Automatic annotation (TrEMBL):
GO terms for molecular function: alanine-glyoxylate transaminase activity; L-serine-pyruvate transaminase activity. The modification N6-(pyridoxal phosphate)lysine is found at residue 185. Keywords: Aminotransferase, Pyridoxal phosphate, Transferase. This is Aspartate aminotransferase.
Length: 352
């Protein structure tokens, strides 16, 4: 059996596979419009927003860029804490968009504190909720609250790429104005769709920029059940199918994901591995490599058992390895993965 244990793409949900097995649907037909509207409504429920969720054909990075370029004008000051590869990406997107991006640096694995972002004079704060590169989770409501106390007109944008359907999210309740996500993580679908969730406050502040990334144009089209451009409509069907299955039992699903990730950390830590994040996200378990054991050896040990894992990124490349059960794994399969993990550790760790 093949075990896809990477933090994206992940093992596909059976409902996604079923939807993707259907014949190609033309995107300018009534069945496609109905599916598009259904998917958008379900995504609004998943993000728990009274605003809008736009479906874009592209990756989560496309959604991050669309969020930045459509909410902030060139020259505006934004605060960007950098504590992993994807928060670094938010910073790079802000620079490319012509913003005056002020960077707050943290060692990878650490997370920003509310007092760090309580600074005046900023139009926005850009945060990664679940930092996939380190397995760290930030306290999004506390950070958003601290920032807005100093910047009442400021907007908070969040990367929720590996928190949507993995950790509870609620846009307005968390103080988040806009969020980006993608199809290939917690939604258990193939890569190819990005999502931008916009709160009512963010909708009032849209400053459309770009051509393909013009969210105002997209909003007009998507309210009618279409996209301004050719969408990956069969992926939209898959997203809708998964959400229809998961959302009615979301609390159970989130509890399962949290238990599964804690199971991985338990296996690693009982054998003396050191966790990377100070605050653990349920999306991914990240460990420092054992002393004297290269990543290639760990990767090969998993591969010999039919499993694919991920290594480190940025300054953590060659220093850590990452496992994830974000995909469609039930409780019993997770126990099987834990047993496999123990086998690997028995092989690679020196005898005590």
């Amino acid at each position: 059996m093949d075990w896809l244990l990477t933090p994206g793409p992940v093992r596909l949900h059976p409902k996604a596979l079923e939807a993707l097995s259907r014949p190609q649907l033309h995107h300018r037909t009534e069945p496609a419009r109905e599916a598009f509207l259904r998917a958008r409504g379900l995504l609004r429920e998943a993000f728990r927003t009274e605003g809008e969720v736009l479906i874009l054909t592209g990756s989560g990075t496309l959604a991050m860029e669309a969020l930045v370029k459509n909410l902030f004008a060139p020259g505006e000051r934004v605060l960007v804490p950098v504590y992993g590869k994807f928060s670094e990406r938010f910073y790079e997107i802000a620079l490319e968009a012509g913003l005056e991006a002020h960077r707050l640096d943290y060692p990878y694995g650490r997370v920003p504190r509310p007092e760090d972002v309580a600074k005046e004079g900023y139009a926005g704060l850009l945060l990664v909720h679940s930092e996939t590169s380190t397995g760290a989770l930030v306290d999004l409501p506390a950070l958003a609250r601290a920032f807005k106390e100093q910047n009442p007109e400021g907007l908070v944008g969040a990367d929720m790429v590996t928190s949507l359907l993995v950790r509870e999210v609620a846009l307005e309740a968390m103080g988040v104005d806009a969020a980006a996500s993608g199809s290939q993580k917690g939604l258990m679908c193939p890569p190819g769709l990005g999502f931008v969730a916009l709160s009512p406050r963010a909708l009032e502040r849209l400053r459309p920029r770009g051509y393909y990334l013009d969210l105002a144009r997209e909003l007009k089209a998507q309210r009618e059940g279409e996209s301004a451009w050719t969408p990956a409509i069969n992926l939209v069907l898959a997203v809708a199918a998964v959400l229809e299955e998961v959302l009615p039992r979301l609390a159970h699903h989130l509890a399962l994901k949290a238990w599964q990730n804690a199971l991985l950390y338990g296996v690693g830590e009982e054998r003396g591995l050191r966790a990377v994040p100070e605050e653990k996200s349920p999306a991914v378990a990240a460990f420092y490599l054992p002393e004297g054991v290269p990543y290639a050896r760990v990767k090969e040990a998993f591969a010999q058992r039919g499993a694919v894992i991920a290594g480190g990124q940025g300054p953590l490349k060659g220093r850590i390895f990452r496992l994830s059960l974000m995909g469609a794994y039930d409780r019993y399969e997770a126990l099987g993965v834990a047993a496999l993990f123990r086998e690997v550790l028995d092989e690679i760790l020196p005898a005590s």
